[in-house]
Amino acid sequence: MNKILVFSFALLVLGCGSQKKISEVASPQETSENSVTKLPKTDMKSALKYLASDALKGRQTGTVGLESAAQFIERVFEEHHVLPYFETYRDSFKIKTIDGYNIVGYLEGHDPELKNEFVILGAHYDHIGIVDAVNGDNIANGANDDASGTVAVLEWAKYFAKTKNNKRSILFTLYDAEEMGLKGSEHLAERLKKENLNLYTMINFEMVGVPRAASETMAYVTGFELSNMAEKLNEYAQEDIVGFLPQAKQYNLFQRSDNYPFYNSFKIPAQAISTFDFTNFDYYHHVDDEADKMDLVHMQNFINKMIPALEGMINAPTKEIKISNE
Q1: Which of the chain's termini has less CB crowding within 10 Å, N or C?
Q2: What is the pTM (predicted TM-score) of this model?
Q3: pLDDT, tens digit (0-9, with 9 covering 90-100), for 155-171
Q4: Which pLDDT score is estimated for 325?
Q5: Which homologous superfamily does the CATH classification assign to the domain defined by 43-315?
Q6: Which residues pair with 94 in a beta bridge?
């Protein structure tokens, strides 16, 4: 989640103590820029632990830790036959002297006509790196923000690559430099717009590692009123998974995550889905945003429940998700 979102989070992090780290992570020597063959297993649990491990030093843009995360994502795509959309998986850009790169995987659609339309599923894989120490810990691991969303996108990439149940083409996009002001998603959105990509919808997954209260919908969508996305996803899933968060509009969440550059460039339904609702996680941009605080049962449940919703969107015979008042 973008660093701009500082409103009430300062209250959440006061007095938070350091917790025991997960031990099953890569050793520091496994984070060199030539270490892709030494990366850990790519199942959901291992992926979350690795991306949020101390060895990656908080995945700040331009660091060795971020490079290691990029290599890991590329390996998942390669192992599961998700192709690069560009010449390589990397969509590279500069922020002054800093090198940034989004990672973009591609599955061509299987319908002769609908394959010319695209759906984007995305999340950001960078975080804020090294911060002021709390109880001797100065690594902001970013497990919920947004290793959780990254892992979810990778799981769906593996699923669709295996089932081939996608009439439309899919881009799986993991963004760099979100924490620097959505720089990665801005670059990719502008590039794809210039290339005249026929983009139908885009969903960004932001902080999905913790469950909401049982009385609430599992997740919420930002910009709820801007399209019928929540309604249609719930219809495809045949249950209410995605709902409305009143604070989302108050805090302008729609414009503060990686969906917004795509909405800006393409004027299509491009929204973010999250399960973090300001009441269920106290460690935003904090050293205790650790993998051991993520609810893996919730994450797997969310990922599985979203599959029929995503399949419905990707395979609908017409563009059923629309901007409001169209």
Answers
A1: C
A2: 0.88
A3: 999 999 999 999 999 99
A4: 77
A5: Zn peptidases (3.40.630.10)
A6: 99
